[in-house]
Amino acid sequence: MVAEKNMVRSTINARINVIRQAFRWGVENELVPPDVSHVLDAVRKLKAGRTAAKDNDDVPPVADEVVEKARPFLPPTVDDMVQVQRFIGGRPQDVCNMRAGDIERQGDVWTYRPYRHKTKHRDKKRSLAVGPRAQEILLPYIVRKIDDEFIFSPMDTMKQFRAIQRENRKSKVQPSQYDRSKAEPKRKPREKYDTHSYRRAIHRACDKAGIERWSPNQLRHAAGTTTAAHFTLEAAKEFLGHASIKTTEQYYVAPLPELAAEVARKIG
After folding, report:
1. CA-CA distances (angstroms) from residue 256 to 42, 206, 212?
2. Among residues 33, 108, 217, 259, which is most buried (max CB within 10 A)?
3. Domain holding 148: CATH number?
4. Whole-angstrom Cα distance, residue 122 to residue 125?
């Protein structure tokens, strides 16, 4: 995997886990001797700095001013997705999978419980706090959706695009020609965004804005860094929904040299 495929360390460790799981399944179904699984469990993961396998670069937070440069070039629906993700500190899939019925709208802070999430297979529950700014964006979507409909849909984006086209049309047309969309198009818009289409829409906007591409995961890292800077690391852990504070500290909170400089000015 290292020499021939040039894989990064995290990918190799993930594939090793898949191999272990396959053999555990074999043991469970009496297809593999139990001692084989025990031997595989003894194989350690590759550790940072102790292997020739390279590591992925850390995902940096995206600055708010960079996001603002891309926003004018985003489709309105994707723009709302970006803002909601930044406000709730969610993962890209949390925003893509958001449904009206998954949001409890009691109190001044709503609770969003994704029906699908990264750690569901481990029987872990997940909830995200939805504050006033995210609520303001979400409410117009929620009131026109039924509970099991996805809030952010490429179909809505297509309707918005067609409406803009009609508004910008210079020539006058007959009422029957007002809507020129095909009744049975070969390729219909999907009912929801996935993480790939969401990321591609952002990358296209970045290209149009003439800035370096950033990805949805960086919005979550930005939320974690901002929360830790203004509150505490424990607050960032709870806001992001991590089981361990080590995960928050290691992956989701970027160094803040300007904060260290401010402390140095006051006490150094």
Report:
1. 39, 25, 22
2. 217
3. 1.10.443.10
4. 9
